Amino acid sequence: MADRKQTAAKARPNLYLVGFMGTGKSTVGRALARRLGMQHLDSDRAIEEAQGRPIPDIFAAEGEAYFRKLEYDFVHSGHPESNCVVSCGGGLVTAPGMIEELKRRGLVACLFASPETILSRTKGNANRPLLNVADPAQRIADLLAEREPIYLQAGACFYTDHQPMVEIARHIERYYFRESRRLTAKEKPR
Asked: Membrane-crossing residues (predicted)?
């Protein structure tokens, strides 16, 4: 019984980092996990490991809808319920109800970057099947226009252009401590 109380006392809500590809979710997520003393998970890497193949192969063989189902499964049963910083794939929150599910499971922070920054950060990365098109800059602009209203509903927004990732991690860390205290206070019986 004492062990369960100690574990429960140490349990902290997960922090989900969402946003478009190339906004820094994985880099910031690793830094935040170290700073917070939490485990870092990357939804894309977890799916690749579970499937035994890279994302482009999943997209090529099964298509985007199948990959989105794998993301759904990851959120609903593929990771611990607490003490994790989770870097989510760029399209994960686009599925209906997914933002609400992440908020139910923890805190959500959304990372943004300009289309130019995203193009620069993703250029030449073969692991970006949605950008394997003739005009990746136009594809980024189109996807951002489609997804931005969804991202804006996700949670606190942090812009990653022209800032060191360590500084962004500090801002999100402050947000996490403030909001996790608020969340924990709501859960305590009165």
From this structure: none
* Residues annotated within a binding site for ATP: 22-27, 128, 163
Cβ contact 20:150 at 8 Å: no
Q: How far apart are CA 13 and CA 107, in angstroms?
A: 7
Binding-site residue set = 22-27, 44, 68, 90, 128, 147, 163
pTM for the predicted model, two decimal places: 0.88
CB-count exposure of residue 78 (10 Å: 0-12, 13-18, 19+)? middle
Is 80 strand, coil or helix? coil
| Angle at CA of residue 183, ends 180 and 186, nearest 5° | 150
Round to whole Å and give the CA distance between 131 and 173: 31
Q: Which domains are present in the chain? A: 13-182 (3.40.50.300)
Binding site for Mg(2+), residues? 26
pLDDT tens, residue by residue, 167-176: 999 999 999 9
